[in-house]
């Protein structure tokens, strides 16, 4: 009897233990992985979301007229039929913001901060929504496909969808909606105890220590020019030349080792203001397969340390020749002050102990020690980064447009800003983009100047993992059917909307320019996959030196003109001016919902410009049912159709939506 009772007690104890463990398992999962958020399905669950911005007409116009002040204004927004009251909205960007302000367009990118006026308010859990105006993208889909590739590899990246924007119920434009890389992003991807996040921004073009902060002699030295050589005179922002009209250096060649300008688009939104940004415009021309000329290949020395001088790109150029402040992620020394650019770009609240872990990881990386990085995340990042040839980034000489993630002393790179992907930045020509070498995936810098990439490429197992992700993108994503299915679905959504008065009246590009551009993008992605597979199997050289020595097997790109896909200067595609002329196309300053009253073009905020009230509106309800002007109805159905073989593409769940990450 006693034995039976003890057995029963033991059984009860075991059941209780199992119940406790089952209850705690979600907590354990949160500690090591992401936490599912409602906005993944409710907001980004369709490939085309609707966003109606409801503002007083005068406030809206004041915000547009004073866009350069980047001041938040109060508004209500209705997203996919649900209204969020009293949110903060402002124009966003750097050079892209200035370019729009200096043009005849009001088609700004926007940032919506849901808790700006109401503490704790979110959009189904999302704290910040970014609406990109697609100024540099005639295809409308460059960044969409980049984020789709990251999602395919299960890489932590912003959730994304196309968005149809209306203002007070009137059509405004087709944008790209992105999840802001902030607190809700970290929770969704890394759980309740995420690591630390930084957005280093070493801008050679602006900001302290940048190009705009240098006198003529310093700039001449940075550019590697002699005393008698003329500096390239850049036009004023309101007088930017069209494609093919850029001024050339005195000898008719490109400036030594550098493009004429730096990056175009926006930095990661980590605050209300960002450092001044500049942008490069380099378009690909028709060309026969040629070896890349502006990549260098030098294996990093294991014992190499940095001395605060970034050596890539001639004598430094716009991205080098000065202290990077750590933004190139090369180890300098043990002094935390040597990495001030990283700390200044903090997204999470960090302290010296957090900074010390980053420096220790960078030191390990410089010594070839993989324990300083999250190998899997870094390999996934490098695979997509290399596939899409995004050189306005750490892969080029600017050393910016990325997020640095640190957890338990290991570093990883997270994606941001791909508006100049697929050869939009200093690609040289179409062949250089299509055949960009996978084993020296940098431009205008040497591999020793990108230690965080070199540590992967110099380790046999890590390099094999990186190669496997490249192969997965080529064989499963592009050639396996998912790319074709997604492309067809998106064309079905956009073809009848882009550049139409009913859906996209502020478009930078015409319908014909969009059609030509998006078809070119499809060809570029397919040929890029072909070249990468050739590099992986050894039929095409996979390094810069190898391609320079033998270009006979490079994939032919002589029929491609990458400039039709858009450039840093925005509208007009490959030389056009949009539907009605002007650098920025058709985005005139018209106030939707205000009887079409035309307003004066104002490029910058006057000194005495009145600012909006920052007081919250009287109604502090977090969300209400949408009762104001409704945006046009868009089908939320998930894409239909099957790949050529009739099977669901690898990595894609049956009937899953193509615009969300898992």
Summarize the structure.
This protein has 662 residues and is of the alpha+beta class. It has helices at residues 2-32, 39-42, 57-65, 95-101, 142-152, 183-190, 216-222, 340-344, 352-366, 375-387, 430-434, 451-457, 460-478, 482-494, 511-537, 544-549; strands spanning 48-54, 73-79, 82-92, 109-113, 128-132, 160-167, 170-179, 196-198, 402-407, 410-415, 623-625.
Structure notes:
Helix 13 (460-478) crosses helix 15 (511-537). The chain is 28% helix and 11% strand. It contains 16 helices and eleven strands. The model is unreliable at 23-32, 204-216, 218-225, 229-322 and 573-662 (pLDDT under 50). It starts with a helix and ends in a 37-residue tail after the last strand. The strands form two sheets. Strands 1-2-3-4-5-7-6 form a seven-stranded mixed β-barrel. Strands 8-9-10 form a three-stranded antiparallel β-sheet. It has two domains: 39-200 and 577-625, no CATH class; 277-565, no CATH class.
């Amino acid at each position: 009897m006693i034995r039976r009772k003890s057995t029963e007690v033991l059984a009860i104890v075991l059941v209780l233990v199992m119940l406790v463990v089952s209850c705690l398992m979600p907590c354990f999962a949160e500690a090591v992985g992401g936490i599912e958020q409602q906005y993944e399905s409710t907001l980004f669950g369709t490939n085309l979301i609707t966003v109606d911005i409801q503002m007083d007409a005068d406030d809206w116009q004041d915000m547009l007229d004073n866009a350069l002040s980047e001041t938040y204004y109060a508004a209500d927004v209705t997203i996919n039929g649900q209204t969020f009251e009293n949110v903060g909205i402002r124009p966003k960007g750097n050079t892209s913001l200035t370019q729009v302000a200096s043009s005849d367009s009001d088609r700004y990118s926007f940032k919506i901060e849901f808790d700006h006026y109401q503490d704790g308010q979110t959009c189904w859990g999302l704290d910040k929504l970014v609406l990109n105006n697609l100024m540099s993208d005639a295809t409308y889909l460059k960044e969409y496909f980049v984020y789709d590739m990251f999602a395919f590899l299960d890489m932590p990246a912003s959730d994304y969808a196309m968005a149809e924007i209306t203002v007070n119920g009137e059509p405004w434009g087709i944008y790209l909606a992105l999840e802001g890389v902030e607190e809700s992003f970290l929770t969704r991807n890394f759980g309740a105890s995420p690591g630390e996040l930084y957005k280093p921004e070493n801008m050679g073009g602006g900001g302290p220590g940048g190009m705009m902060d240098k006198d003529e002699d310093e700039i001449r030295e940075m550019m590697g020019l002699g005393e008698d050589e003329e500096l390239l005179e850049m036009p004023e922002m309101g007088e930017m030349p069209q494609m093919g009209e850029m001024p050339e250096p005195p000898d008719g060649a490109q400036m030594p080792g550098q493009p004429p300008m730096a990056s175009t688009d926006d930095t990661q939104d980590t605050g209300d203001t960002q450092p001044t940004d500049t942008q490069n415009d380099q378009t690909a021309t028709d060309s026969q397969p040629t070896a890349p000329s502006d990549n260098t290949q030098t294996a990093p020395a294991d014992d190499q340390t940095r001395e605060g001088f970034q050596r890539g790109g001639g004598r430094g150029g716009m991205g080098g020749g000065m202290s990077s402040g750590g933004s190139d992620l090369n180890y300098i020394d043990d002094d935390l002050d040597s990495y001030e650019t990283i700390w200044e770009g903090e997204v999470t609240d960090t302290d010296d102990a957090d900074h010390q872990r980053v420096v220790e990881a960078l030191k390990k990386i410089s010594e070839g020690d993989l324990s300083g990085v999250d190998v899997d995340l870094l390999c996934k990042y490098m695979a997509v980064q290399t596939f899409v040839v995004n050189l306005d980034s750490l892969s080029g000489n600017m050393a910016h447009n990325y997020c640095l993630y640190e957890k338990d002393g290991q570093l990883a790179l997270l994606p941001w800003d791909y508006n100049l992907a697929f050869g939009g930045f200093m690609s040289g020509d179409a062949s250089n983009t299509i055949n960009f070498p996978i084993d020296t995936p940098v431009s205008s810098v040497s591999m020793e100047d990108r230690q965080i990439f070199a540590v992967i490429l110099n380790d046999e197992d890590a390099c094999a993992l990186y190669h496997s992700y490249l192969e997965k993108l080529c064989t499963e994503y592009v050639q396996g059917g998912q790319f074709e299915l997604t492309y067809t679905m998106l064309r079905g959504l956009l073809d009848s909307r882009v550049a139409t008065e009913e859906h996209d009246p502020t478009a930078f590009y015409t319908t014909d320019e969009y059609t030509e551009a998006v078809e070119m993008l499809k060809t570029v992605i397919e040929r890029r996959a072909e070249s990468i597979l050739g590099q992986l199997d050894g039929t095409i050289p996979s390094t810069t030196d190898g391609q320079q020595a033998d270009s006979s097997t490079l994939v032919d790109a002589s029929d491609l003109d990458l400039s039709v896909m858009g450039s840093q200067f925005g509208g007009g595609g490959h030389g056009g001016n949009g539907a009605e002329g002007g650098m920025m196309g058709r985005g005139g300053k018209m106030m939707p919902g205000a009887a079409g009253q035309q307003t004066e073009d104002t490029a910058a905020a006057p000194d005495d410009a009145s600012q909006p009230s920052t007081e919250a509106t009287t109604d502090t309800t977090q969300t209400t049912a949408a009762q104001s002007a409704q945006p046009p109805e868009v089908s939320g159905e998930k894409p239909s159709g099957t790949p050529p073989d009739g099977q669901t593409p690898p990595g894609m769940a049956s009937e899953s939506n193509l615009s969300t990450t898992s």
